[in-house]
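hi! just following up on the protien thing from before. the input was this:
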Amino acid sequence: MKRKHGGLMMLLILALLATACGGNNDGKEGAAAPSGEPAQSSQHNDAESNQGEEAPAEAWTIEVTDDTETKLTFDGPVEKVACIVSLCIDVLAELGMEPAAIAESGVRVIASSPEFYGSKGESFPSIGGSFFEPGLEDLVTAAPELVIGLKGVHDTLREGLDGIAPLYLANPKSYKDSLEFLEKIGELTGRTDEAAAAKARFMEKLETAKEKSPMDKKALIIFGSDVNFSVITATGLGGTVMKEFSNYPWQVEKAEDDPYGEGSVPYSLERLLVEDPDVIFVESYSYSPGTLPVSEQLAASPLWSKLKAVQNGQVHEVRSPIWGDGRGTRSLGILMDEALAILYPDLF
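and the predicted 3d structure came back as:
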């Protein structure tokens, strides 16, 4: 009995010691200490034990998805961008950046326009080859961190650019897509403030146009290189802007007429006479020297002269590299400025 009583005393002493050492935290990590102050977490204790040691900088990484659903990952803000499409020039100008190299033809034209880089745009390093097949050697020389191209045109370049630079393919179908692209590239380049400012400028201009415009002029944008022209509909990029401040009734009536969802359809003068627009904006593209503007080629048809816009002198050749190829917020802003000045000269 004595031995048994001694064992019980020993167990009691051990239990008391365990209670004193363990404290009362109900099994919950980080519970309040008896003084009422928050208990220090193990992370806090580790930080104190490592006081004086500089913590490693957190890696800067970002992942974006382009218009082909391809994911691109970057380990830091992108600084060197090569442009093989005019949209790239547009977004870099909005962000206050300069391209590392640019393709020729229409891309060089828009870069040299006064609203973009002016004469400085003539001196950016050149990417040779054609619009459809830019020179890979020139891209290697430029050593960009990113190449921006056009979805549906430059898709096959991704493999060739492997090991040179990631390829971001875009093709905005509406001005909202253009705004989203601006924000994505702003994030990639670490220029979110500049992107936000450019977006605000565009939206302010659009809201002003919507508020002041009487919407009583029927407008139309057509494009082509000869008499076989196409119409930009209300779901086409320029049309999504134009319909905000004008009567813009043009629609894709048959899906087969617009198989790629670009919002443009082939048209005829006979169909054009049915709606008979008040103002026609023409984007002419020339693929050989001496090609006449589309409006002058169409003038050879007797139907052309029957259009109200023709009779009233309201057919206007526009800068197709900006109106048709720019695709970004700055180009669309220029489209707005120029269209409003023609549609409603007393108001804008």
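The first strand starts at residue 62 and ends at 65.
Residues 2-22 form the longest helix (21 residues).
cheers
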